[in-house]
């Protein structure tokens, strides 16, 4: 199949590269000339394990190419994926569809022969209908179907998720479009991946509902963690006890400083706005949003409390800045709430992250960045673990203690065991566990 992908952000680049790995002929289009030039040279602008090697392989094979000419890419395509950004709109939290609708207008003008136009971007219910209207109004003679095909990619594991998904959701009632989508995803038939065909509206809502449910699980276990601290229970025991129930499942039941990233915060807000505008407000999702925002800011209070109630003039070492490991994504990371609160309280921050520091430097001010985990610890009054990168899981704790002015660790990801840390002479604080 000949596929055009409009947008080379996270979703567009991963999807285009994986489609080319399937053996399809893929052209990825973007208006950013410098990005396109870099991608032509095999330079990946994001950190995603395995993506650079897969891209290099398929560039050499000629199954993927990059350009800025949307018209030619669309005119020669059997299927066109819209994979542009849908950031939160200022003021109301709804998804900003400016780029989606702009892409639709450009696509309409370039359509040549029957083409399936697929929304890969995360969009509210009703977007597919509006894209259909834009295409028909712009090019009444065009022959096409509009499909919703939401992505379910985890940053840090996107290649695995795309190549071995637990399901593919396709929103269309057109048998002709179904045939095209079946052919696009035919390589997954070897792994018997379920392809779930729904209406466009159901597919659009499935994406938001899935992310909102996972965000709700995170928020639930975070609140249970707070209760565990009050009553002397261990949140990990509770999470295991309920997670073994197959109706609940153990994933996303790990306590921490709150969820962040490019999806959960944006999608929960957009879903709540859609539900409110539709007259069926999802109050549970509204609560999830409020709790998560409050929690991220409250983590700074935990750090201050562990430092005898004040961080004025103290040096706080921070390990981990991205919202999760194995990504350089800083969007809505808890560190963006925690660190400014500590700075405002008078702390001197020294930070390290394996992949996120270049992005962090654009978003955080008045802090020092170091090039390794141990450099941040020299003469530090306390250490805060915000992101659970693998290299932070087995630190030389004797070295850590010897470098620090005060052996205080606030472990917001529960990387270490309380009893072991206390036996080693640390003042140790974690989340939802008895000390």
Number of strands: 14
Query: How many separate domains?
Result: 2
CATH superfamily label of the largest domain: NAD(P)-binding Rossmann-like Domain
Given as residue ranges, the uncertain stretches (5+ residues, pLDDT < 50) are none
Strands side by side in the biggest sheet: 3-2-1-4-5-6
Strand content: 5-15%
Number of helices: 16
Main beta sheet strand tally, sense and closure: 6 strands, parallel
Shape: elongated
Structural class: alpha/beta
The top-level CATH class of the largest domain is: Alpha Beta
Overall pLDDT metric: 96
Distance between the termini: 58 Å
Helix content: 40-55%
Taking Cα atoms only, what radius of gyration do you get, to the nearest Å?
Answer: 24 Å
Proper CATH architecture of the largest domain: 3-Layer(aba) Sandwich
Would you list the SSEs in sequence order as H and E? Answer: EHEHHEHEHEHEHEHEHHHHEHEHEEHEHE
CATH fold assignment of the largest domain? Rossmann fold
């Amino acid at each position: 199949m000949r596929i055009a992908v409009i947008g080379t952000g996270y979703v567009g680049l991963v999807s285009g590269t994986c489609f080319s790995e399937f053996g399809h002929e893929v052209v990825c289009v973007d208006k950013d000339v410098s990005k396109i030039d870099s991608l032509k040279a095999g330079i990946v602008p994001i950190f995603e394990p395995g993506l650079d090697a897969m891209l290099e392989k398929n560039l050499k094979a000629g199954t993927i190419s990059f350009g800025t000419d949307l018209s030619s890419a669309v005119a020669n395509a059997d299927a066109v994926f819209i994979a542009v950004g849908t950031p939160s709109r200022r003021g109301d939290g709804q998804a900003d569809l400016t780029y989606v609708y702009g892409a639709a207008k450009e696509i309409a003008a370039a359509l040549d022969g029957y083409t399936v136009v697929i929304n890969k971007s995360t969009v509210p219910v009703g977007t597919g209908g509006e894209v259909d209207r834009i295409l028909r109004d712009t090019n009444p003679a065009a022959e096409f179907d509009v499909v919703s095909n939401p992505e379910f990619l985890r940053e840090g594991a996107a290649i695995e998720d795309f190549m071995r998904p637990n399901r593919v959701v396709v929103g269309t009632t057109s048998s002709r479009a179904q045939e095209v989508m079946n052919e696009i995803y035919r390589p997954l038939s070897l792994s018997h991946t379920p392809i779930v065909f729904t209406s466009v509206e159901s597919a659009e809502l499935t994406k938001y509902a899935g992310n909102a449910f996972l965000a709700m699980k995170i928020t639930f276990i975070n609140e249970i963690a707070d209760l565990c601290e009050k009553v002397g229970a261990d949140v990990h025991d509770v999470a295991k006890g309920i997670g073994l129930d197959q109706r609940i499942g153990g994933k996303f039941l790990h306590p921490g400083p709150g969820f962040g990233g490019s999806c959960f915060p944006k999608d929960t807000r957009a879903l709540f706005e859609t539900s409110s505008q539709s007259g069926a407000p999802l109050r549970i999702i509204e609560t999830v949003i409020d709790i998560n925002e409050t929690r991220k800011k409250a983590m700074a209070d935990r750090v201050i409390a562990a430092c005898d109630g004040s961080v004025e003039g103290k040096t706080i070492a921070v390990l981990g800045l991205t919202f999760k490991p194995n990504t350089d994504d800083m969007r809505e990371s808890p560190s963006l709430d925690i660190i400014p609160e500590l700075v405002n309280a008078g702390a001197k921050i020294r930070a390290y992250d394996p992949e996120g520091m270049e992005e962090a430097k654009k978003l955080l001010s008045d802090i020092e960045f170091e090039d390794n985990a141990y450099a941040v610890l020299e003469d530090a009054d306390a250490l805060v673990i915000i992101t659970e990168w693998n290299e932070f899981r087995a630190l030389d704790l004797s070295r850590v203690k010897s470098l620090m002015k005060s052996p205080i660790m606030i472990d917001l990801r529960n990387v270490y065991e309380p009893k072991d840390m206390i036996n080693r002479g640390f003042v140790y604080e974690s989340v939802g566990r008895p000390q």
